[in-house]
Amino acid sequence: MKFIFFLSFITLFCLPAEANTLVSFKPAKDRKEIQIIDYLQSSTSDNSTYLIAGYDLNNDIFKEYLVKNQNCLVREYCSYKIIAFKNRKPIIIGEFDAHKILISHEKNYGIHDLIIYNDENSDFLSKTAVWNPYQFRYVIKN
């Protein structure tokens, strides 16, 4: 009996459990987030309002940002952009149309994969966007 309790304890509390992370968007608040929104608004002809989510996708203590249009409804495709900073300026390192995006616990080249849900007929079908170091951006994995 003690052995089963011990094994249960080890399984529940000591083994790392990794799960995919649902991206939680919010309005831009800090300086970097506002700089990203200004960059996007200046590069497009419309004056859209954006929501933003910051995550450290490559464990370098600096956040990368996922951005979507605030007016995008839940069940329609949204245009998502993944943005990082290079020489203190925002650059786009990925663009996808999707219903939703998850951050995967899986990594390629030390950078988290992104799970892209964009199938009209199924919420279970997804594609994986992986980091391509030669293109310096996320691409859909074949």
Helix content: 10-25%
Count of DSSP helices? 2
Strand order in the largest sheet: 1-7-8-9-10
Amino-to-carboxy terminus distance: 48 Å
Uncertain runs are 9-17
Morphology call: globular
Radius of gyration: 18 Å
Order of helices and strands: HEEHEEEEEEEE
Mean pLDDT score: 85
Secondary structure: number of strands: 10
* Largest sheet descriptor: 5 strands, antiparallel
Main structural class = alpha+beta
Question: How much β-strand is present in the residues?
Answer: 35-45%
Brief sketch in words of this structure:
With 142 residues, this protein is an alpha+beta fold.
Summarize the SSE layout with pairings.
Layout: H1 2-14, E1 21-22, E2 26-27, H2 31-43, E3 50-55, E4 64-69, E5 78-86, E6 89-98, E7 100-108, E8 111-117, E9 127-132, E10 137-140
Q: Could you please describe the fold and organization of this structure?
A:
The protein has 142 residues and is an alpha+beta fold. 18% of the residues lie in helices and 43% in strands. The protein is built from two helices and ten strands. The chain has helices at 2-14, 31-43; strands spanning 21-22, 26-27, 50-55, 64-69, 78-86, 89-98, 100-108, 111-117, 127-132, 137-140. It has a five-stranded antiparallel β-sheet with strand order 1-7-8-9-10, with no helix packed on it. A hairpin with an 8-residue loop joins strand 4 and strand 5 (78-86). The protein is globular and about 35 Å long. It starts with a helix and ends with a strand. 24% of the residues are buried.
